[in-house]
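Fig. S4 source data, part A: sequence.
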Amino acid sequence: MSELLKIDELSAGYGEAVVLQNISFSLAEGETMALLGRNGTGKTTLLDTLAGATRQHAGRIEFAGCALHTLPSHQRAASGIGWVPQERNIFKSLTVHENLTSVARIPRDGQSSRPWTPERVYEMFPRLAERKTNLGTQLSGGEQQMLAVGRALVLNPRLLLLDEPLEGLAPIIVEELLRAIARITREEGLSAIIVEQHPQAILAISHKAIVLDHGEVVHSGSAQELREQPDILNKLLGVTQKNF
């Protein structure tokens, strides 16, 4: 697999405050990475930095052969970054269908043989098809999360950034979203970086994993190996993890 993303000696934060220090890793085309760590260790800041929402103090971010760190946030989205932040950021005054069609873009020639369209999103999330005329304010938390993922997909990205996509959702919705994420990454081959507080759930569908602590990488390796070593996982995260 060819290299899609390379981060080298990255330091970033908000204003003068440095949250991330000397972050380095790479991600190949079609790989999924679980981004783990205790609360406040810099996971969200790393995704925000890739999306262009923080101040970068040092280092390089190369994405699909371009210097991503030199681009403003709107150009990063156009270059192939799909971002689903914790806040979801759907347009609550628009309908489900308007949310999808207002941001949909046609992929570049040869980028995708099966581009993501609103219709494909409805196939992935039948709940959204049933509510396509509902406003964002009329959706449940789980439906809003599905819509946030769908909005990122219709940008036809090469890399999907998911910040705690399962947070606060009912177990049945968690299972539905996990199946969808697994299909998007494993079957569709879309690269992804996923932040999640339930590591066993995400490690099961990821290729690699890194763990942050105090803004630095303290572990990097195979997701399967980390999942099969719960003692090490518990030590790194400092809490007992439940299985999904």
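Fig. S4 source data, part B ends here. Residues 109 and 178 are 30 Å apart (CA to CA).
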